Amino acid sequence: MFIPDDDRSDRWFETLKKFILQIEPTWFQDIKSVSVDEIEKFENQFRHHVDMEFYLPKEYEIFIQNFGGMPYFSFFYKPIEFSYHSISVMFRFADVWDRPYLEIGTQGIEEDAHLCYSLSPSMSLNEAPLVMTRYNISGTVKIADSLRQYLCCQSFLALGNQQFPHEYTYKLKFHMHEPPYELSPEALSWSEANKEGHHEKDECSLEDIGFIMQSQKIRDILVKHNYQKAWFSTPFDQVWFQEDSFCSISRDFDPNDMFDTVLGQICTYNQATILSLIDDFAQIGYQCVEKKWRSHIPAFLQNLL
Predict the structure, then answer these.
(1) Are residues 125 and 251 located together in one domain of the fold?
(2) Strand runs labelled E in 74-113
(3) 275 with 296, same domain?
(4) 200-243 pLDDT, tens per residue?
(5) Cβ neighbours of residue 134 under 8 Å, at least 6 residues apart?
(6) Which residues make Cβ contacts (< 8 Å) with residue 275, sequence separation at least 6?
(7) Domain check: are 173 and 151 in the same one?
(8) CA distance 106 to 115
(9) Are residues 152 and 169 in the same domain?
């Protein structure tokens, strides 16, 4: 199984590129870079808007040196799929926030979810957390420890499944993306049991609690079946490996801000090895459905079987 290596040097992008090319040899053929002069010009423009000495985080400078000439691009599959901006359009400054943000991606042109670095004069730019702002809520959610970690996770979720002849997707039977937009029985039960102790100002919102509860159930099953969490797992997207399979756990955002759940994929070389895992998922309300559109894997990966 090919996975992104945990390369913490300044050559991390070359390591990520190697992983992608092992699975999708033509993926980079239309990718465009930017020059150092263009990056310096952007930094100077940003300083006019932010009352602080500003240089791009090193990992992001490496990223746009390779991708910054693209109008937009994204890794597909994710429930929240960010399109990464080119250097000419990526800067946004919203004065409704308590600090400036370097916006580097968004969920579509008119969507409310934004991928940003949260900037502060008191911290090094290389320490600036990678966060997501969404739904015009005055607050942020940490999305990864670093852009390197986030991109490795996204690339594996988008391409890693192509290494396997068998792929299942799973999601909770009950979800609130369609009428009547009500809480699931589990969410309603939790709300009733905890209504005295939960307030809107609590650190965890109800939708946060839904994700926490559901993802813990999935993790407990994976540990039972001897899966181990990948180094590039993030707060919103976890990848768990076993010898001949992997399972992802991704936050499924409830558009009605009620009770977030999880969804994901299970991929394997040997279908028989995950039957008991699928049964355990079904016991907690998650239906695993095999994707029929791919019955084989690329020829250059056949030697992995």
Answers:
(1) no
(2) 83-85, 101-106
(3) yes
(4) 444 456 567 778 888 999 999 999 999 999 999 998 899 999 98
(5) 107, 112, 113, 114, 141, 253
(6) none
(7) no
(8) 6
(9) no
